[in-house]
């Protein structure tokens, strides 16, 4: 029976499932693609002293503009481009759906992919089109092209690398898809949330071929950089586009504390780069170790996560997930997200000690079941 208090809450909202976060109390947390390393003690102290001087009694002002300038320099933003900030990438995804919510608008993305593309479309009443990847987790160029021609989506999302598959797309395929979307004035959003761990960035393509990428928006987050708790995303694109979308941004959406943390991180980016390199090194060690296990396949990764498929009859991902939980190791069970992910778990790359415990646990689980 419907609650009488919900009369004016949209029916489709009532039927949705909220985005849930697993409880990680007392667990080795390898489920959310966070940087597992804290700041070095000296930087923690310096940041604490700096935040203590922030005027939290005032609304955010110039420091937010200082952050935009610093980020523009950090990414070496091309001319004729502008940058806007969001409370994480999630807010930017929401603002994009809001800005492009014209009659009969559609948003398209390959699947499996980041769930917020579809959820944000639904929140704003925009029709969502999901196009399955190939069994090898590559873009299905024929299917994508057909869907683009048929639906003419206002936005096409291409996560680069993709979540949860952790791979990069074929650049030639991306160029052709961008050309199809640009031909009728649609936007292609390249979501580079995992750029610190990737060997390639589409920013190079934008700089080398600006004319072909005029309808491309490049989105990143500082969450994977090492500031997941700060909640700060940014999006770069042609100034004419960014200035229109930025009108929808809530005033003061980025706090003074968030801004100061981000500025501090950019000023000390060498420390974060060293952490990213260590994560990439650990990623390869994890992949190599998993490949030696029975009934487990680790897919190549360009992110700080690894997709693993468990293949033995009777040994499903849910069983491995639960047994890892019993050993106080929390990973992400993505096996029910999409048919292509059947039997898969997503493992975040942790510290060397955490990764060693994960491998030891998997060796025990898979050895006991063989």
Percent of residues in helices comes to: 40-55%
CATH C-level category of the largest domain: Alpha Beta
Number of domains: 2
SSE pattern, N- to C-terminal: HEHHEHEHEHEHEHEHEHHHEEHEEEH
- Low-confidence runs of at least 5 consecutive residues: none
- Structural category is alpha/beta
- Distance, first to last CA: 48 Å
| Biggest sheet features | 7 strands, mixed
Quickly give the CATH architecture of the largest domain: 3-Layer(aba) Sandwich
- Shape, principal axes of CA atoms: globular
Per DSSP E runs of 2 or more residues, the count of β-strands stands at: 13
Mean pLDDT: 93
Please tally the helical runs, counting DSSP H or I stretches of 4 or more residues. 14
Protein architecture, described:
The chain is α/β, with parallel strands linked by helices. It has 2 domains: 4-41 and 270-369, Alpha-Beta Complex (Aspartate Aminotransferase, domain 1); 55-268, Type I PLP-dependent aspartate aminotransferase-like (Major domain) (Aspartate Aminotransferase, domain 2, 3-Layer(aba) Sandwich). The chain has 14 helices and 13 strands. The strands form 3 sheets. The chain has a 7-stranded mixed beta sheet with strand order 2-8-7-6-5-3-4, with helices on both faces. Helix 12 packs parallel to helix 14.
């Amino acid at each position: 029976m419907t609650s009488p208090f919900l009369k004016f809450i949209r029916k489709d909202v009532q039927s949705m499932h909220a985005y849930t976060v697993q409880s990680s109390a007392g667990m080795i947390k390898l489920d959310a693609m966070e940087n597992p390393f804290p700041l070095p003690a000296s930087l923690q102290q310096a940041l604490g002293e700096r935040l203590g001087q922030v005027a939290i009694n005032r609304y955010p002002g110039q420091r937010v503009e200082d952050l935009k300038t610093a980020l523009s320099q950090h990414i070496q933003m091309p001319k004729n481009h502008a940058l806007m900030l969001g409370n994480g990438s999630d807010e930017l995804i929401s603002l994009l759906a809001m800005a492009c919510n014209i009659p009969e608008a559609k948003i398209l993305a390959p699947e499996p992919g980041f769930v917020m593309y579809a959820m944000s479309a639904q929140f704003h009443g925009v029709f969502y089109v999901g196009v399955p990847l190939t069994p090898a987790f590559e873009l299905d160029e024929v299917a994508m092209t057909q869907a683009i021609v048929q639906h003419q989506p206002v936005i096409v999302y291409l996560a680069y690398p993709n979540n949860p598959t952790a791979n990069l797309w074929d650049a030639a395929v991306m160029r052709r898809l961008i050309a199809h979307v640009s031909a009728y004035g649609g936007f292609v959003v390249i979501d580079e949330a995992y750029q610190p761990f990737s060997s390639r960035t589409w920013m190079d393509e934008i700089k080398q071929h600006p004319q072909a990428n005029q309808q491309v928006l490049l989105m990143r987050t500082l969450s994977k950089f090492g500031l997941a708790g700060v909640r700060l995303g940014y999006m770069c694109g042609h100034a004419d586009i960014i200035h229109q979308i930025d009108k929808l941004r809530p005033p003061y959406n980025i706090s003074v504390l968030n801004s100061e943390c981000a500025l501090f991180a950019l000023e000390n980016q060498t420390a974060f780069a060293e952490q990213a390199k260590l994560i990439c090194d650990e990623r390869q060690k994890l992949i190599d170790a998993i490949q030696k296990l029975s009934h487990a396949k680790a897919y190549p990764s360009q992110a700080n996560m690894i997709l693993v498929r468990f293949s033995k009859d009777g040994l499903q991902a849910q069983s491995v997930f639960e047994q890892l939980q019993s050993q106080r190791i929390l990973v992400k069970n993505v096996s029910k997200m999409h048919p292509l992910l059947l039997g898969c778990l997503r493992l975040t790359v942790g510290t060397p000690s955490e990764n060693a415990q994960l491998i030891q646990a998997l060796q025990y689980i898979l050895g006991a079941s063989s």
